[in-house]
Each structure stands twice: as C-alpha cells, then as structure tokens.
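User: I'm preparing a small set of examples for a lab meeting where we compare how different chains pack in three dimensions. I only have the primary sequence for this one, and I'd like the structure in token form so I can line it up with the others. Please keep the answer compact; I'll paste it straight into my notes.
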Amino acid sequence: MSQLTLYHAAPSRSSVALWMLEETGEPYEIKLVSIKAGETRQPAHLAINPMGKVPALKDGDTVITECAAICCYLADTYPKNGLSVPIGQPARGIYLKWLFFGPSCLEPAMIEHSLKREGGSRSMLGWGDYDTVLDVVTNAIAKGPYLLGDKFTAADVIIGSGLRWGMMFDLIPKRSEIVAYVSRLEQRPALKRATEKDTQLAAA
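Assistant: Understood. Below is the structure token output for the 204-residue chain.
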C-alpha cells in the first residue's frame, strides 16, 4: 500500500499536486473528493483539511495542505529526481522565492484582475499590481528554459500551473514568452500523465 495519498478533485487546484507527484516518480494513491457533492465540507474531510479544500497530501501520519507547501515537501522529502535545490546552495533562495510567488503574487493578481477590483493602494497588496507581477514572471521565464535556467524544479510546477490556468481562462495575456514556457512544460511526460489521469477521473 502506498504511503502517499492525495486528496484530490479532478480537475482543481489539486491537479498541481497530482503533477508534482508524477514528477517525483514515487507511488501514490488518490482519494477522490467531490466538491460538487459538498464532500470537502464534511467532517471526514475537514479532519484532513480544516479549510475544506483540496489538495491535501498524507504521507504516513503527516498531512500537508496548500499546493506550494505540498510541492516543497515532496521535492525535499523525495529528492531522487532533483526537483528541489538543496539547503546550503545559493540558488535555493531563488527557488523558494518562485515556489511561493505563485500563491502569494501570481494567483491573487490574476483573480483580482478577473474580478476587476484593481484600484486599491498598491502598498496594501502583497503582490503590488497585476502588470508588475506579469512583467516579473515574463522576464524570468524569458531566460529559460526554466525558472532556474536548465534545472526544472517544483517552482516550475507552481508557476507553470498558474500560467496554464491563467491562459485557460483568459486571465493573462498570451505573451510569446509565456506561451513558449507553458509549451515546454506541456511536453513533460509527468504533466502528460497527470493530465490524462485527470481526464479519466473527471469522466468517471
């Protein structure tokens, strides 16, 4: 029996964790949770994730929630595929910055932009403003092929997932740098496997 269990709704934000699990190459199990049926708000799931959301990852007796935390945990705990930057290496700081830039800057900036709620004080917002967020990401991926140059990491799973989602729902412009970066990511066998699993799970 696999030690790793992903609490997953297909497709959803937990698809990010599914991709990351495929990148690790470790065996895992999926426990499907229906958002439409309200299962994320039931006591059984709230005991796993009190936020009533997915994903949640269980590794033995350890439960991790939040996509970036799950990706960071998996990369550090299961290092055989080199998805992290080890502690002590200078590039780890850059790696961590991008790993957490996704949920703290990229995603909220896209959501606020889609809700047309811009106009507040820039200094009050952790992400500053939508245009700056996009410019910072675009400049980073333009140097490519990945955020840390030739090395693909969990940070690319987080930022790449955000950009894929943003393009899917027209929340970001299809800049040539973004399109090229996402296209490179979509050639990764792990992402192809995760996408196929999501398609099958959603159909079932």
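A couple of notes for your slides: The domain at 91-188 is CATH 1.20.1050.10 (Glutathione S-transferase Yfyf (Class Pi); Chain A, domain 2). The chain has a mean pLDDT of 94.

User: Perfect, thanks.
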